[in-house]
Design brief:
Number of helices: 11
Bound molecules: NADP nicotinamide-adenine-dinucleotide phosphate
Distance between the termini: 35 Å
Helix content: 40-55%
Strand order of the largest sheet: 3-4-5-6-7-8-9-10
Largest sheet: 8 strands, parallel, barrel
Radius of gyration: 18 Å
Number of strands: 10
Strand content: 15-25%
Length: 297
């Protein structure tokens, strides 16, 4: 039995989400069946998860979610990410965003998507205005509730300051602490919802050797450099509690295909924020070796 998950207002959007969100990247992978997705979503809903995040680029994730959400669409705040991948339309143009929203509505089998992010475009594209205007048109057209940006570094800073977005998504974890002194508090102060992606920092403790995938290898290098102590906690609980209770973070997006890992995250969140000495040691390690680390897209 897990205590009910806490919820928080998603900035000033009027939406409320559970602190634990389901990052639906892994369910897009080949080999996942509709039954797997149904089981994962069923566990999520039982735990009180009310936020699910997907993207155009996550394989079959949007289609599978669309099928699994039939009859229970109202139970979740549904988030996706786009801006590319529309056949015959150049990426990062107004038409790519507007047709992208129409495609996502179809794949997700819904009449409105709660949160739509521009998915990691660079700052220059944001500054050009075309894709931001197109996304805001889809909000005015009643196809999207909240316009959002997902990304890092100078593009994220621009997105937060622009005032165009009700939500931003960025990496927040023990190996992604840079934003906690910049974009995250700045967003929270403006009433912008903050979704923490990669909240376990890709769980680098799982690997005995440096992983092949460049983003996970980067996380593994950082984890080694931090040289953290576990403070008597399992690594997954420590990492989950760090991200879920980081000031300014509204919700974490746990990337998992495993119902057991969702339950573990809910249990960790039920234990509350990390003990102050453990938290202080994580911050101190980052200040010592990580202050120059860039945001991991
Ligand atoms: N906007 C972007 O560009 C972007 C980029 C990255 C991520 N995201 C979002 O953030 C979500 C999460 O990111 P992520 O998946 O890269 O990173 P993550 O959540 O930090 O790590 C996920 C990895 O950790 C494993 N894991 C989960 N719980 C675990 C546990 N208790 N013990 C050991 N391993 C565990 C998962 O595998 P299992 O399936 O085995 O649990 C998965 O391989 C994505 O699904 C997506 O929604 C967005």
């Amino acid at each position: 039995m897990v205590t009910a998950l806490p919820s928080r207002p998603l900035g000033h959007t009027g939406l409320t989400v559970s602190v634990l969100g389901l990052g639906a990247g892994r369910i897009g992978e080949s080999g996942t069946t509709d039954a797997d997705v149904d089981r994962l979503l069923g566990t999520a809903l039982e735990l009180g998860v009310t936020l699910v995040d997907t993207a155009r680029s996550y394989g079959a994730s949007e289609e599978r979610l669309g099928r699994a959400l039939q009859g229970r669409r109202g139970a979740v705040v549904l988030s996706t990410k786009l801006g590319y991948g529309v056949p015959g339309v150049p990426d990062w143009t107004g038409p790519a965003v507007e047709a992208g929203v129409d495609g996502a509505l179809q794949r997700l089998r819904t009449e409105i998507i709660d949160v739509v992010h521009l998915h990691s475009c660079p700052r220059e594209i944001l500054e050009r205005g075309e894709v931001v205007d197109a996304l805001l048109r889809t909000v005015r057209a009643g196809k999207v509730r909240v316009a959002a940006y997902s990304g890092e570094n100078d593009a994220l800073d621009w997105a937060v300051c622009s005032g165009a977005f009700g939500v931003v998504q960025c990496s927040v974890s023990i190996v992604d602490q840079g934003v906690l002194a910049g974009a995250v508090p700045a967003a929270a102060e403006r009433g912008t919802g903050v979704l923490a992606k990669r909240p376990l920092g890709n769980a680098p403790w799982r690997f005995d050797r440096r992983p092949d995938a460049p983003d996970v290898a980067d996380a593994w290098d950082r984890f080694g450099a931090l040289g953290l102590e576990q403070g008597g906690l399992p690594w997954d609980a420590l990492a989950t509690r760090f991200s879920a209770f980081a000031p300014g973070v509204t919700a974490i997006l746990l990337g998992t295909a495993s119902p057991d890992h969702l339950v573990a995250a809910a249990r960790a969140i039920a234990a509350g924020p990390l003990p102050p000495p453990v938290l202080a040691a994580i911050h101190a390690a980052h200040a010592r070796v990580g202050s120059g680390w860039a945001g991991r897209i």
